[in-house]
Design goal:
This protein is 45% helix and 12% strand. With 306 residues, it is of the alpha/beta class. The strands form two sheets. It has a six-stranded mixed beta sheet, sandwiched between helices. A two-stranded antiparallel sheet has the order 3-5. It starts with a helix and ends with a helix.
Length: 306
């Protein structure tokens, strides 16, 4: 369950104000990267997001990223989260196929344990609906309650807000229907066992430490550590790293090869997708692009947490 939570969290945005560091003195600890070369007339920018982070009310994106958005023609996120048509139809895609329910996947004792857990912990969605959802999505509804803060926000929300203020169109690399379909590739029985494991571990000290470690690596913009944490194997789930991470990276690169020649773009995806040999940064380089780290100094409210 730990690995899945990390995927769900990471994974997930004025060029005059941006200064790319020299390739001879790179600073790999950054979430913002400049994409150029390979015949591009204008550079684009790649940014690593986190899908949930504590917000004390003063959270904001860096000046460098704001500058990139200001000078971009469009912004691409993993999803177009402003598409109301998709939002209205996504609920049906969250359900398991074939009228399957959680009771079909667990023993009576296990099912009662999960049901009692959800009935005694606050959730915006009643358990009668949740038990028809793909179990890993059901688990994600409780993720916010494990955070040691009253308010949380996604970096995507901040990026969308800034893009709208600057009049920049926001599009998605994937549809919600596609993202929901990914969970059909993971056997429901295995998902149910992961959900049960999450319930069993809920509230334990180690659970909070895992999330805190992930958050700190993100705030430190340490992609190497994020890669290690994101791909750390969870029993039985290692085979699905291919589905959840690598295959999606490869698909995005093919789409970006069509998108990037048409202007300047900010592409913001979960930070866990950026590092590694099969990460987006390296795949862009293999496709012939020059990808350079950009100074993305975190704001003071971030630095206080380090």
């Amino acid at each position: 369950m730990v690995m899945m939570k990390k995927f769900l969290t990471l994974g997930l945005f004025g060029i005059l104000c941006i200064t790319a560091t020299s390739q001879t003195t790179p600073d790999p600890k950054t979430l913002l990267w400049k994409i150029s070369g390979n015949g591009l007339e204008k550079p684009s920018y790649l940014f690593g997001t986190i899908h949930m982070i504590c917000n004390d009310g003063g959270l904001s994106i860096s000046d460098s990223l704001k500058a990139a958005i200001r000078n971009a023609d469009q912004v691409y996120l993993e999803l177009d989260m402003d598409n109301m048509f998709e939002l209205m139809n996504v609920v049906t895609k969250m359900k398991m196929n074939g009228d399957t329910t959680l009771a079909d996947l667990l023993s009576p004792e296990e099912y009662r344990k999960v049901k009692d857990f959800f009935n005694t912990h606050s959730s915006l969605i009643p358990f009668a609906m949740l038990e028809t959802y793909k179990p890993l999505l059901t688990a994600s509804t409780l993720m916010q309650s494990t955070m040691e803060c009253d308010n949380s926000i996604s970096m995507e929300q901040l990026i969308m807000k800034d893009a709208k203020e600057k009049g920049k169109p926001v599009k998605g690399l994937e549809t919600m229907a596609f993202q929901m379909s990914i969970f059909d590739s993971i056997p429901y029985e295995m998902q149910a066992k992961q959900l049960l494991q999450y319930v069993n571990n809920y509230g334990k000290e180690n659970e909070g430490k895992e999330f805190e470690e992930l958050t700190q690596a993100y705030l430190q913009q340490d992609l190497e550590k994020l890669e290690m944490l994101t791909t750390k194997e969870s029993a039985g789930m290692e085979a699905f790293t291919e589905i959840l991470l690598y295959k999606r990276n490869e698909t995005w690169i093919k789409k970006l090869q069509d998108i990037l020649p048409n202007g300047s773009f900010v592409v913001a995806v979960g930070a866990g997708h950026l590092p590694g040999d099969r990460g987006v940064i390296n795949l862009l380089r293999k496709a012939g692009y020059k990808v350079e780290p950009v100074n993305n100094r975190m704001l003071k409210q971030f630095e206080k947490q380090l």
